[in-house]
């Protein structure tokens, strides 16, 4: 695309989304690029209220596609009015990148609201005494160790995990070994979200530190404005170094819009990696090598990883996710644990309430 200087929109009546479309540039060559402003487009449609709970998720995505195309049309109308070249419509891959982000935010909002109902019930049952509180934390993309899900764990656990690769790498001391000089790492993609559990007094302090006032663990997320989505993204940082697995880690969720035969195995890999890290913590604690979490048991690995498909699932999908945890087959003394505890199909938002109950009670 052509190189067009950015436009100063001071005082313009154009929406922030359209201004962003017009002024989006390729970071390498500064050319105009057809980038979809993900959170802004989401807010254009759902910034004042959530989609209907009975809405099909495919219809939710379609509504955002329509809004994105309308935004590009409006941007080009403006560019034509000032005699500037138009911007081509976004590619299919650009929409695919947005689809996942849009559905993750929407699922997070409905999941949060489901947990808020449960938290309120727990509070009422406890007559305002100490009770369990669940929070839904959206996880960032794992682009560095600093964004790894393990950064949520208590500092002593995070430090032990950080040291372990170097300890293993140092065991290869002979240059004759084919792996001499090679680093041993614990790298994998993050799941999309994690549900954490705290007692009510702890969550009160943690939540005050976030500074978030437009929703809390007992109240609903009202919409998908850019303010709300920014808050959802920020929770990971506020809950760093607060998680003891045996007490605070309820379960992970990995969400996909659709399943291809090759993509279903990403769930298996993610679940296996998450549970292997937890198993490592359990083994090190049990052997007295490091008292990382002495209450964590092998059986606690059950119910820790759920795969969510936002489309219908097949028998082949379910069978593939019956794969056992690698760590459960290394000893005949160990009972069976699965890499993925359950594959759940979610095709409309009304199903999320029952899915939250299933995950908490698994």
Automatic annotation (TrEMBL):
InterPro entries, per the entry: Restrct_endonuc-II-like, Restrct_endonuc_II_Cfr10I
Superkingdom classification of source: Bacteria
KW Nuclease (keyword) present: yes
Record's keyword terms, sorted: Endonuclease, Hydrolase, Nuclease
Pfam families: Bse634I
GO molecular function: endonuclease activity
Keyword Protein transport included in the entry's annotation: no
Protein name per its UniProtKB record: Cfr10I/Bse634I restriction endonuclease
Organism of origin: Mediterraneibacter gnavus (strain ATCC 29149 / DSM 114966 / JCM 6515 / VPI C7-9)
